[in-house]
Amino acid sequence: MKHILPGVLETENVNGDSLKYLTDLRKAQPNKPLHVTEWWPGWFDKWGDKGHHTMDVNFFEKEITDVLFKANSSVNFYMFFGGTNFGFMNGDRVVTSYDYDAPLSETGNYTAKYWKTKELVEKFTKERGLPQLLVPKP
Q1: What's the CA gap between 46 and 109, in Å, rounded?
Q2: Which GO terms describe its molecular function (predicted)?
Q3: Angle at 100 between CA 97 and CA 106, to 5 degrees
Q4: Per-residue pLDDT tens for 71-81?
């Protein structure tokens, strides 16, 4: 792996083969933390696509398990909450929906990925002796 800027923390953007990419990154910078800057739970849709770009929840679980438990990496979901761009800044072929098959849908609904993420984060924090997540009361 070639360093882009020596001494600067390198990170990964992934949505598959996460463990492979993070293992390679660990070899390139063995004394630095691992971080996935953009972990894509799905993908954006373009006009004319044959359907909504989604990721199976079982594959999602495997990949997040690899990132958190096997690679011991931190992760940023891109996107965690889908949304809509009405500003026409999405590009000529990309629809204004930015749903990305996110754990929280564009309409704000919980998805199977949301519940799986919650389960994995609770397991991760418990195994590492971290405080459990607080659930806000309405």
Answers
A1: 22
A2: hydrolase activity, hydrolyzing O-glycosyl compounds
A3: 55
A4: 999 999 999 99
Dist CA 65 CA 57 (whole Å): 12
Q: Alpha-carbon distance 116 to 105, whole Å?
A: 14
Q: What percent of the chain has pLDDT over 70?
A: 93
Of 54, 63, 56, 108, the closest CA to residue 81 belongs to 108
DSSP three-state, residue 38: strand
What are the backbone angles phi and psi of residue 62, rounded to the nearest 5°?
-60, -45
Whole-structure pTM value: 0.84
DSSP track, 49-92: -SS-----HHHHHHHHHIIIIIS--EEEETTSB-EE--SS-S-S
| CB contact set of 6 (below 8 Å; sequence gap of 6+) | none
Token pair in block for residue 95: 């629809």
Distance from C-alpha of 61 to C-alpha of 67, rounded to nearest angstrom = 10
Residue 2 pLDDT class (50, 70, 90 cuts): low
Tokens 């026409």 belong to residue: 88
Domain positions in the chain: 12-25+35-124
